[in-house]
Structure prediction request, 515 residues.
Amino acid sequence: MSMIAAFYGGKSILITGATGFLGKVLMEKLFRTSPDLKVIYVLVRPKQGQTLQQRVFQILDSKLFEKVKEVCPNVHEKIRAISADLNQNDFAISKEDMQELLSHTNIVFHCAATVRFDDHLRHAVQLNVTATQQLLLMASQMPKLEAFIHISTAFSNCNLKHIDEVVYPCPVEPKKIIDSMEWLDDAIIDEITPKLIGDQPNTYTYTKALGEVVVQQEGGNLNIAIIRPSIVGATWQEPFPGWVDNLNGPSGLIIAAGKGFLRSIRATPMAVADLIPADTVVNLTLAVGWYTAVHRPKSTLVYHCTSGNLNPCNWGKMGLQVLATFEKIPFERAFRRPNADFTTNNITTHYWNAVSHRAPAIIYDFYLRLTGRKPRMTKLMNRLLRTLSMVEYFINRSWEWSTYNTEMLMSALSPEDQRVFNFDVRQLNWLEYIENYVLGVKKYLLKEDMAGIPEAKQHLKRLRNIHYLFNTALFLIAWRLLIARSQVARNVWFFIVSFCYKFLSYFRASSTLNA
Ligand SMILES: CCCCCCCCCCCCCCCCCCCCCCCCCCCCCC(=O)SCCNC(=O)CCNC(=O)[C@H](O)C(C)(C)COP(=O)(O)OP(=O)(O)OC[C@H]1O[C@@H](n2cnc3c(N)ncnc32)[C@H](O)[C@@H]1OP(=O)(O)O
Ligand SMILES: NC(=O)C1=CN([C@@H]2O[C@H](COP(=O)(O)OP(=O)(O)OC[C@H]3O[C@@H](n4cnc5c(N)ncnc54)[C@H](OP(=O)(O)O)[C@@H]3O)[C@@H](O)[C@H]2O)C=CC1
Prediction:
């Protein structure tokens, strides 16, 4: 019997960010392994014209939750959606709901965050720092609380090369930053943002670092743990391989490469690609929840959920496997054949961006205009180039994350828990994982049918022929223009033609003799 699964039985659990990528996988696993849990409270904001209930039921009715329905048929009754906006004071939670949360919650998993790299500092601070502070305040008023688990990122200290499982101090105290956001106007915040974030690459990693300091400073007597996942990718095994539902991290770029938009990417092939499957992060999170509540460590423990030091894979190997998978399972209606390459310096990056990204987009938009349609490729390409510029920082460096706490926890689990809540990335086969990831992107993100693969392969063959035809035509035009202007080119041309003619004559003569 799994001790961790038993621990969550009968518990009231509060999850923020439950409608996000990680939050959904966390809820799924909780319901599947501890169907006797009492209730999961989820803090949700109404969105896109949907009520809270509709948003939550849409998640429960999705493919991700198919297995849950078998073991926990009354799952709809065990989830309680609470209207909340983490950007508002007291999260805009009603008095009655707040009372219920405060008096019943046993465990808090804080997943909500803005993960945008380009978010305005004010918004990133509000969600990743102030909201964390407010949630801690709420938690301190929960008499039945056993553990508070904060999800951070392994990149919260990416200005360092070697990162330990400790909370590092920030140059400016989070409280001062929070205060200043209240009275500074947007223009001044824009101006001081580069100075404040210093050697951090963006407002996301900067505010996640501030969030950790807040957790450590304001955690009081709570049992708290911090989990730092690296780049969260599709699921590895559970509830099935390859599940993914948003474009963050590598997923959007896999689509861009598979559809033939992404032709070159500035990355260091030998740099470690520190991906971690979503189900691995969730298994560690649940194990940490149990350990923190039951063993009550004296200080706030930080757990690195990374793959690089236990089972490293680099971007070169990953890129090649992504491309190899496109051969077997191509995406439908590709713009060009998937054939991306790495560039390693500014000049080649600019060159290939102009030749392989911007020029085809301009040509295609011209064609769309000619045929009376609305041009859209240049806009799409600009967005892709912007995304590439944002992720470049992360794919041209390697980091070393120590994993003592994570390994300690692994050894503290019973064999059964090690199996049910497996977070040992040493067992991960990267080639298999990446193939399933690409397949998952096709099935769950693009919603493409596997029956369409033969047609997709035919389409790629047509694109290859168009490519050859286009290149041949381009070469002949260039050559014809050159011949018209240069005596040297004409001489070379006549030399090649006469050489071919002589070769053919010789070949014909010798084959007549042999016969
Ligand atoms: C030795 C041998 C060598 C051999 C060489 C072989 C060559 C092989 C080359 C092959 C390459 C092939 C494949 C490549 C696959 C692997 C490449 C992997 C690179 C992975 C990089 C990941 C790095 C991540 C690092 C993360 C570190 C921190 C981790 C975390 O803690 S948090 C999670 C990460 N957060 C994010 O990822 C958020 C990033 N997103 C943003 O910040 C923003 O969305 C934005 C990118 C800045 C874009 O902002 P915009 O305002 O312009 O757009 P908006 O968000 O409003 O969206 C508009 C529309 O665009 C869609 N969209 C959103 N995000 C993405 C995205 N990431 N990619 C594509 N499209 C995206 C969005 O859906 C909107 O669409 P619409 O609704 O239809 O308009
Ligand atoms: N994905 C990754 O690669 C990594 C993620 N992490 C961390 O994991 C956690 C989860 O990330 P992930 O699931 O990928 O992120 P998502 O963007 O998928 O989910 C974010 C969640 O936060 C919620 N949220 C955002 N703003 C508000 C708000 N104002 N009020 C209420 N809820 C809000 C979103 O709700 P809504 O649906 O309404 O928008 C959503 O449920 C984050 O803390 C992130 O920093 C760490 C490392 C890597």
Remarks:
- The pocket of NDP (ligand 2) is lined by residues 17, 19-23, 43, 45, 47, 84-87, 111-115, 127, 151, 153, 208, 229, 231-232, 246, 248-249 (CB under 6 Å).
- The two ends are 83 Å apart (CA to CA).
